[in-house]
Specification:
Layout: E1 5-7, E2 17-21, E3 27-31, H1 32-40, E4 44-47, E5 50-53, H2 56-70, E6 76-82, E7 88-95, E8 101-102, E9 105-106, E10 111-117, H3 125-131, H4 136-145, H5 151-158, H6 162-176, H7 181-190, H8 193-196
Amino acid sequence: MGQMQHAGGRDEAKTGAMFVIDGQRRILFGNDRALEMLRSTAIVYACGNRMSFRDGAQDAALAHHLSHIARGHVREACQTLHAAGGQRYAVSLVAMTSPAPLDGGMQPQPCVLTIRSETNASPPIASIAEDHALTPAESRVLALVSRGLNAVEIARALGIAASTVRTHLHRLFQKTETTRQSELVHFVATYGVHARL
């Protein structure tokens, strides 16, 4: 899988597989669940370092969403994947940065792609954003916090100042009634669990 970075360490059964991909589908990062999913090749696979879905319709949808994100038409997209055996997965794609103009179009944007089993998954970032009135910038920060990145790493990934990230984090803490990043990660990982009990 080439230069792909990976990280793990916390319970990823709830958070699912998380990838960072660019507009050309190159895999830049994957957590342990993402690596497992790539190894099994049942849902996604890598050819070279480019990610594809086994399901042709899902793969076409990914290309469509990446194209719309690159043009700045949308910042995120969510849909359901029906896998073999009747298993359903929530698939969420969130742009990490604002689109930048290039000659003849927009620059492909890095995105966080999550794939979670719907039987034990927390809702995608879009649901949390809607329920807690998050701004698009706060949603992007939340997506990266949920992967375990710190303020400096988030700033680097989004191309913004660390002080701006800290401002977004402060607002996220207020809106989610948390006080530190570890609580925010737990909030995302368990979001919606109590509602289903």
